[in-house]
Amino acid sequence: MRYIGFCGKGEGGAFVEGGALGLQGRLPVNTHGGLLSQSHMAGMNHVVELVRQLRGQAGRAQVPDAEVGLVTGYGDLGDGTIAIMARG
């Protein structure tokens, strides 16, 4: 999370332990299970999940009142992309 700035240096452990990344937390992460539960497919399943969240179609994994979402795909060499989408 430090690359994106959701918490300060040295604050990541407490941020995660406090439940911030859970479905009902202030920053739900991997609502579809991440790459452990999804096929890789070049990260497109992350984009599909983001769209489902913004449309309110994520079923049991739905983040209440989702308005903005962020998808990132950092590679092994530090290269990557980021997409930020909002409900329109």
TrEMBL record:
Entries under InterPro entries matching the protein: Thiolase-like, Thiolase_C_2
Thiolase C-terminal domain boundaries: 4-78
Protein name (Swiss-Prot/TrEMBL): Thiolase C-terminal domain-containing protein
